[in-house]
Amino acid sequence: MSVAKYDRRTWLRSMFYGPAALFTLEAFNAKRTDAAAIGPNDNIKVTKIESFVLKNSWVFVKVSTDAGVTGWGEMLKDDAKACAAGALEVGNYLIGKDPRRVAHHWQAIHRGAFYRGGPIKTAISSGIDQALWDITGKCYGVPVYKLMGGPTRDKVRVYGQLSEKTGVNAMKVGVRGTKRSPFKYNEGQQMVDEVVERFAALRKKVGKGVDIGVEFHGAVQPTTAQVLMHALEPYNPWFYEEVVQALNVDVMAELAKKTHVPLATGERIFTKWGFREILEKKAAMILQPDVCYAGGITELKVIAGMAEAYYAPIAPHNPQGPCSLAASLQIAASVPNFLIQERGDNEYSDLLAKPLPPVTGGYRPLLTEPGLGITIDEDKLKAQVGEPRPYRTAYDDDDGSVVDW
């Protein structure tokens, strides 16, 4: 008579889910997750990588394993198809490997390429990195921040839509005149007055208890940016974001010296190497790395550590979906120098199987589910797959020239 051999994973599956189960999860007042049948010391390998481009240009990546544990991540929404295709190419390296060696895989994907960095390449690494952390957290049965030394706080302040219901009391607005934004190389007094009057009216309406960031979006030329920064100061902006194009670091550093309002930047800067220059040149006091673009959770943790050495906080950028928010919240919960989370009040009910813990008093509770802490509804996601939005262009109505937007 032969005796069947069981590894730990097989034993767990038979105990909890087999027809002759000794116990049920309900007996432990617990809910089944895709991590339930895998432990931190069990073998696990990546079997498949899939990518999904949605009609709104959000790009998702799904990493599957032979243990049934899956991980999700998001990538840069610009050049969506290129990012989606690039994620699949990573399968040549990652399939067959243990997904839990997250930092090792980050280095291998980054350093394995002869041409390193750049927005698309780093976005691909970012999405894969999020998915691997998602898997790792599920294997250990804890949210990612608990694997990174957290929690460092009990809840996460967010900004977005002002609301008495959620208590959100921080927002961000763009600089704009009555009919257009101030994109000309050297705007006249009329445009400056229009921008200031609009902001002054907003400040009067919401009062001093609301923090208002001002988004220049890199679309304002340095000559105009300098004038606007000075003119808006009496109305107490919380920060000025991307006062000039992000790669114009030296000019940004010069402008930072001419205002008492903190400068913020980071949504178009990637990896620790890009943020090093910002910190060294004191071009900004608030860093806004994007977890879908700057290098993922692994890299944002490093960037936050660098920023802490300069007494600079981070306020992660987030114009995208639920993985972007969830991954950013993992960072917020694991670093000491976190300031606030952009669009942290979004609920993403059209993509999630379970609702997020609600925002109250302007704060989002820490996510407590394993991995990224969210559950993607794959049917909802696939229903939104389609052609991404086309490139966006902006022109000066006066002469037809191309301008920043």
Core attributes:
405 residues; Enolase-like, domain 1; TIM Barrel; 5-stranded parallel beta sheet; 3-stranded antiparallel beta sheet; disordered N terminus
Please characterize this protein's 3D structure:
This protein has 405 residues and is an alpha/beta fold. It has two domains: 46-142, Enolase-like, N-terminal domain (Enolase-like, domain 1), CATH 3.30.390; 147-387, Alpha-Beta Barrel (TIM Barrel), CATH 3.20.20.120. Helix content is 33%, strand content 13%. The protein has helices at 8-17, 80-89, 91-94, 102-111, 119-140, 189-206, 222-232, 249-256, 271-280, 296-309, 322-332, 378-382, and strands spanning 46-53, 59-65, 70-75, 155-159, 170-174, 211-215, 239-241, 263-265, 286-287, 341-342, 363-365, 394-395, 402-403. The strands form four sheets. Strands 5-6-7-8-9 form a five-stranded parallel β-sheet, with no helix packed on it. Helix 8 links the parallel strand 7 (239-241) and strand 8 (263-265). Helix 5 (119-140) packs across helix 10 (296-309), helix 6 (189-206) packs parallel to helix 7 (222-232) and helix 10 (296-309) runs parallel beside helix 11 (322-332). The protein is globular and about 65 Å long. It starts with 7 loop residues before the first helix and ends with a strand. Mean pLDDT is 91; it is low at 1-6 and 10-36.
